[in-house]
Write a structure and sequence with these properties.
It is built from six helices and 13 strands. The strands form three sheets. Strands 2-1-3-4-13-12-9-6-7 form a nine-stranded mixed sheet, sandwiched between helices.
Length: 260
């Protein structure tokens, strides 16, 4: 019997603003290359829906990329018909930054309700980057089973969920406080009614699903232009932790209909 694997086509969408997309693209392509039968088309946005919807898997790492309504509708149909989407970090973000760093606050406009509903969330704010504990919500699920709680120095995403009950939580963190620098800064328990925030979850949709992981912030010296000519830090967030790479490897296997 032949052991030859059949070809699987996928799209990797990496692009947007204020992140080191070259680094993220390199790391994600290195991980997809662990599957020799996976052929990946790299895109900078979501508008080439012909290519995206021709594949089995979509992986995205974007920030403030706002798809047209046409692209949103076609990708949603693709997911509903069985497509699998691994959505990372700022895929759910729309951000209006002030004209100068430190002057005014970042606004998260609600400009793509269809996109947010499909993804299961929309980014609203994050507190200043600082270490926090990522905890396992559903230890029985193979996507996270055997992974111990781990600390990461990443952006802690504070999001809105159009239909929280439709999600299958996988990872979470516990936090309450002020998201300094954002227009919607009050994330105290008394205001929001919760201290638990999802870090990763599954969003079933028709015959397909979205696997969302909010981790993975990265930024280099030249990624805040034109707001800042030279960013003083190189930030790698969860990319420095072995747990994140294990989560990504499992996410890709999930996208290929494989298990552990």
């Amino acid at each position: 019997m032949s052991s030859r694997l059949h070809r699987i086509d996928a799209c990797l969408v990496v692009g947007g603003k204020w992140h080191d997309f070259d680094f993220a693209r390199h790391e994600l392509l290195t991980l997809t290359a662990e599957h020799p039968n996976l052929r990946v088309t790299v895109l900078a946005d979501y508008e080439d829906t012909h290519r995206i919807c021709a594949g089995q898997l979509l992986i995205s790492y974007t920030c403030d990329v706002r798809p047209t309504e046409r692209a949103q509708q076609q990708i949603r149909t693709w997911v509903e018909q069985g497509g699998r989407w691994v959505a990372l970090h700022g895929t759910n973000s729309a951000l209006d930054l002030p004209p100068q760093l430190g002057v005014g606050n970042v606004v998260s406009p609600r400009v793509f309700p269809l996109w947010a509903d499909m993804l299961g969330s929309q980014f609203i704010a994050h507190p200043p980057i600082a270490p926090y504990l990522v905890e396992i919500t559903d230890a029985a699920h193979w996507l996270v089973t055997g992974i111990e709680p781990f600390e990461t120095d990443d952006e802690l995403y504070l999001s809105e969920y159009p239909d929280h009950a439709a999600l299958t939580p996988l990872l979470h963190t516990t936090w309450s406080g002020e998201a300094t620098g954002f227009a919607e800064a009050d994330w105290f328990e008394a205001t929001r009614g919760t201290q638990r925030h999802l870090v990763s979850y599954l969003r079933p949709l028709g015959s397909g699903a979205v696997l969302y992981n909010t981790l993975g912030h990265c930024r280099g010296h030249y990624d805040m232009i034109p707001l800042l000519a030279y960013y003083p830090l190189v930030e790698r967030g969860s990319w420095t932790t072995p747990q994140y790479y294990e989560l990504l490897r499992r996410a890709i296997r999930w996208g290929l209909n494989l298990t552990l």
